[in-house]
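Entry:
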Amino acid sequence: MPLLEETVLVELILLKTDSLVLRLTLDREVRAIRDSFVTPSYSKLLYNGMYFTPECEYVRSMIQPSQNTVNGVVRARCYKGSLIILGRSSETEKLYDATESSMDELTGFQPQEASGFIAVQAIRIKKYGEKVREDGSKLSL
C-alpha cells in the first residue's frame, strides 16, 4: 500500500476515535457551537490564507477552552478495511451519570419541573459549575 493511502487511513482512524471521545466528554452545547461556528470559520480562514489576522486569532482562542475536558481512551481494531470500536472511556470526564439520569435518585430535581426549560437546562449548568469548583478553577466572563 502506498504511503499516501496509509496516511489517509491513519487520519480517518484518528478522526473517528477523536469524535468518539468528544461525544463522551464534551458538553452538547459546546460541541454544537464548535461544530456550527468554530470549525467552519477556522476552516474558511485557513483556506483563504488568513492565518495571521485578528479574526483568525479570535477563532483560535475558542479552540483550547473546548478541549479542556476532552480526554479518554478509545480501543479499536482494524480488520480488512474496517474499523471496529471495542470500547471508549474517560476516567476524569463523564457526561453521563446513571444516578443523575434516574428521577428516583436525582436530588434537587422534581419531575413536575421537567416541563420547565430553565429547570432542565439548569441540571447541565449546575453540573458544569460543580466540576469547575471541584477542579479548583474559576468561572470567567
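Residues 3-25 form the longest helix (23 residues).
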